[in-house]
Amino acid sequence: MAHPKPLLIEWLRDQINSGSYPGVCWTNQQQTEFCIPWKHALRQDSSESDVLIFKNWAKVSGKGNINGDSSVWKRNFRSALRAKKFELISDNKNDTANPHKVYRWPNESTSEDMFSAASPSQHEPDPHESPPIQSYVVPFTDEDLYHPIQESTPHEDILQKCLTDLNIGPQAEAAAYEPPPEQQEFQRQPVIGSGVLPWQQSDPVAVEDAVSEARFPGQPAHPMEGAVDEAFEGQLAKQFLDDINKTKDGDHFKTQFRIIVHYRGKKELEQLVANEAGFRLVYRPEQAWPVLDHKSGLTLVSLPRPVNIKDQTQAKLTQCILDKLGEGLDIGVSGDVVYGQRRGESKAFWSFSEFDQSGLPREISKLHPDPLYPFSDFLRGILDFISIEGTACGSCSLFLCLGEKWPDPQKGPLSKKLITVEVVLTSLEHLKNMAMEGGASSLKSVDLQMSLEEMILG
User: Global pTM?
Assistant: First the structure.
């Protein structure tokens, strides 16, 4: 009789507690963070003990040949950690003396407790009381909006109650906020919103002219229909690698941006931005077309008026979010990372999926540019797609939600949100389509996999 596959969380805790793996240990007394050696196989001091935990997971999970490549074991182990929501809090794999990573244990119960505090059962007021300060639920069409009411009165307008839930307003940001370790390195480099990026030309107009005429991988001059059928063995992998090299020019990730704006699930705008530096979403109804902001080097894209929304309450709420957008929301590229930063009062949230049911909102910071999507993460997704059967390719889109939390703590759909924006990274879209059309088997090239590993390791 076959033995059942172990659960990663229970198995990993037992392995750390066993002390059987050199360097694998808890890093705090609460046993919520742990260290694991992450040594490259080509290092002269590498040994079998460095990859023993990866090999053992491959053995007990059935993911990968235990007599196979250690890099495959490591990728499968890393993918399993990501799938179970382990958080990477310190990446020191390139440390000369002690290459390692530190992960934080997933704490699903804490997350559930945090959001259950906003559930209707805990926030519905007692009809026999008249509390002046409380939080409760106000019906909003077919969706509940959760919000704190500071000075509630019996005659308070229902629209005003709904407005208080929208994530807008001059709420104080935490002045003493310290980002997690994996973000601190990103913040030390010049990023979006700090003037023309260091790798751009000095004249922003010249930059926009150049990129609008360039042939990006995301906008190929010739469609790829039939390329797979006509290619001999290995040609697709070579072409795929060539296109990746065009997408990552040295240390810089090159892409265009296709922006798709929805109001309450209905598409209101679709716009292609050729500026590889990025764009800034603003609300300037008088601006008919995207224009280049000479100070930041970003293309300004104005959101449309909510004139097509028939429901007056929805229209007023949408207008309120737009009015509070202020200096806008930046999405741009520095080096090989896509960043985001909001500049107005309307808060912004994001995810990689329009069907995200995690219930854990991701807010884009106003204090600093947030690293949203390193290009290396996309490459890891491609590697997993090639080497792990049944694995999907990485995302080529970011899904933004303005003024409302996303992913929704109550698991509501994105289509019910007032303002949502899909940002398609066109070069990644091209690579993903190419991989999906060709299939994982067509990309099983040693040269391609080695090149992807080198790019990820930097």
Answer: 0.58
